[in-house]
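Quick one: structure tokens for this chain, please?
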Amino acid sequence: MEKIVETDIEGFDLTGPGIGTDGKRAVLVWGALPGERVKAVVRKRRKRMLHALVQDVLDPSPDRVPPLEDHYLSCSPWQVLAPERELWHKRSLAQNELERAGVELPDLLDIACGTQSIGYRNKMEFSFTSLEAGEAGGQDKGLALALFKRLGRWKNPLTGCALASRGINTAALHILEELKRVGTPERSLKTLMLRSDRRGRVLAALFLKDEDAAPRASALMGGPLQGMQVWFSEPRTMASRPTKLLSQVGSDVFEETLSPFEGSSSVTLRSGLLGFFQINPEVFEMVIRDMAPYL
């Protein structure tokens, strides 16, 4: 039986959830904001801590805004927080941690961000699920893109993500349709990794648990795709582990030109398809400009 707790949210944990209490135990509630009273459903229990998802907001914060998409807890739980307050909380959390570590700050921290509030993610990793008739929610029956629900193994079917670049969403849906066309079963698929650049180009890697069910990379090309890889991935782990490259077409590396200073020479930034980190060139240029006076 699910445990439901009712708690007041006192602040944010560094990892993103709101912090409440249940008796002597802390409760980390994803989707809850400081100052709110919420009901939350517990998904994981530890000796001194409960991990939960917001179920009902009994007393909402004035900082709460409607999320951009139904699956927001899977990709960006702070979608329900007004953007200006998000920056305020990030500044506060960072400043508190630095002061706790003994770092003296001459001024208040300034949190830099890019100019885009949606469509800014240039790396995404989707899973797959199968939809039955009556549960498609506007999607076609059969194979669908998905993200794992937070704190569980269940999946949210979707047709893209508001935070992903347009190129990534377009390429992901194109690959999905090609997988449907060639009849690749959901049980054989693991994940789809995509990376885009500022020109809208996309690289993608498909990871499968069944080597025999793998389509050719060339069969999946189209749209904004500039490169495609198909990998067999160790089925005993949920991670997108590149165990054996089965086929490849096109490029697996982007090169972008950075111009952090007006009139200065440009810098070439190379980012690989399988690189772990998301790279935000716009913010990276800001970092270079901030570092320059100290170099």
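The chain has three domains: 4-87, 123-252, 255-294.
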